[in-house]
Amino acid sequence: MEQLALGSQGLTVGAQGLGLMGMSVFYGATDETESLATVDRALELGVTLLDTAESYGPFVNEQLLGKALAGRRDAAVVATKTGVEITDDGRVLDLNGRPEYVRHALDRSLRHLGTDHVDLYYLHRIDPKVPIEETVGALAELVAEGKIGHIGLSEASAQTIRRAHAVHPVTAVQTEYSLFERGIEQDGVRDTLRELGIGLVAYSPLGRGFLSGAITSPDDFAADDWRRTDPRFQGENFDRNLDVVREVRRIASDKDVTPSQLALAWVQHQGAVAIPGTKRRRYLEENVAATGVTLTADDIAAIEAVAPHGVVTGDRYAPEFMGTLNG
């Protein structure tokens, strides 16, 4: 796999990364053996950016990654996140960007990961109670101490990104970006990242699986799959979004690729590093193959015709979660 610069601060990653969240939580049944084998296969294929967070579990996803990388820590670019306060016994509280919590959380993550440093440390969500300058100032101290290689933000506004970057260079911003979620093209975030030389990491690049073409009914989800509460998978929203997926599938078929590969190739074409989440080797291999897909100007025009900005129907999170996305 091609290795490329993520941002302008010296971090190099594979052209596609891997999101590990679903290996532990939120997307139905998990299988540690298959998850570990999936990480193994990812590294074999040149995937280096492995993405986790202390809130995934909590803690268990970081512990899984630590187990997967035992004895070969340097084979991966490890990215994890803080900013959602979690007690040491695993109770999830509120957003917390206070310097003392960030430092405590990092030390705990390092123990769970079995390492002495994190390559990329994100502020998972922006705490409105704490000036971003204070939080990033604490992260900068941890960079100076060698515990963090690079600083990242997640779901941050253009203004917040600028304020953070003025304190210490931000290497990457992670946000939802896909054919179904193109808000950063309109709210100034994408332009700000390009101006400041900050890398874009796209999570949910397959619209939480919708753009894979494999989901045909809300009943496809396990009882404990959180997508059962996602507005885009409900009622008329589901039916309208499925119509878009059918058009994406048609374009993919004409190009002799899968819908997932077409959707991922589009994200890559926009200059982002996608981190599709999967917990199975067969889907990983399908996703990685997208790095070899080239989109022509005609392909981009055809995709734009069926999936322009705003085509998706329904909010991307249920109302109780939307408040965490306004930083």
From TrEMBL:
Gene3D superfamilies (UniProt xref): NADP-dependent oxidoreductase domain (3.20.20.100)
The NADP-dependent oxidoreductase domain, residue ranges: 17-306
UniProt entry tagged with the keyword Oxidoreductase: yes
Gene Ontology terms, MF aspect: oxidoreductase activity
Keywords: Oxidoreductase
A Pfam family of this chain: Aldo_ket_red
E.C. no: 1.1.1.-
SUPFAM superfamilies (UniProt xref): NAD(P)-linked oxidoreductase (SSF51430)
Enzyme class: oxidoreductase
InterPro entries reported in the protein's UniProt record: Aldo-Keto_reductase (IPR050791), NAD(P)_OxRdtase_dom_sf (IPR036812), NADP_OxRdtase_dom (IPR023210)
Alphabetized PANTHER family for the sequence: AFLATOXIN B1 ALDEHYDE REDUCTASE (PTHR43625), ALDO-KETO REDUCTASE YAKC [NADP(+)] (PTHR43625:SF40)
Designated name of the protein: Aldo/keto reductase
Originating species: Streptacidiphilus cavernicola
Classification lineage: Bacteria, Bacillati, Actinomycetota, Actinomycetes, Kitasatosporales
